[in-house]
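Sanity check

After download, print the first record. It should look like this:
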Amino acid sequence: MKKIFKGVMALALSSLVAVGVSACSGDIVKEGSKIQNCSITLSYFSDGEVKERMLGFELYLNFAPATIEHFKYLAENGYFNGSAISSVSSYLEFGAFELKDGVYTSIDEKYTSLINAQYAKDKKIGKNDTPRYTDKFNIVGEFEANGFGGNKLTLSSGALVVKRDYSKDANNSYYDTGRGTMAITFGSGSYFNSSTKFAIIGKIVSDDASDDEESSIDFAKSLMSDFDADENGNTYYYFAYESDDEELNAKIENYGRQYMKDDDGAYYRLDSNGAYSIALDSEDDDALLDAFSDNSVFMQVLPYGAITVKSISFE
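Expected structure tokens:
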């Protein structure tokens, strides 16, 4: 598949790439789970126009029923509408950010407006009636690490997962919870390193190729290579790391979280006009550059072009 974004960076960053989802129930059973078919339509800018492509998914209802209900509730209430695909770094991510003038902005307030105390009241999960949500209204993921077994899906081959929350508790341990961020994974990778800590709710279809187009899984994989850099070899990152170092956090707050790395390995940050023109080359930037290296798992590769959720619906 040829590079579909080459030479159109400025225009693509201001254009919307949309995602639409529809699903229908059936009586199909695979690996001991009832299947619900789901289709995701991508609308992307290429050759001066917006194009569309539908991807097929299967939701495994028996493996993570509460997490799937959570995903569907968010979808049916428009949570994903307008959200951006925000990583093409060995996995595809959506549901965490929206794009405003080319800058990725959190949609956490949109999440908490839907998943609130009233919604979460008395909701339980699992045989032991574990509270469905934490005091921060994070969903308690149906991870093996949380005592939920029997999920036969893996993080490879286009798994659809709820991305794990990387916040820390009082014991400095990561929560085994999730929110509204979804990911399509293709291997364990450096971030998705254990299927026991992620709620895998489904997987992408691999057998729907036609004479006119490649399969859903092959097209999704091609996004990670076709969208990862511009024609000059520049790669764009969102640094999602939360540091315990107040000075480093202040630096990130001042600089922002979006960076560019050129093909020589030099990093640049955005200027006031939205261009990556300010090099990180002073001694004051050494701590930030070290953080990029030491915490590379949090360096999400932004797609070269805007990718935005249009709508999600279920039959």
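If your output differs, re-run the checksum step. Summary of this record's structure: Residues 242-294 form one domain.
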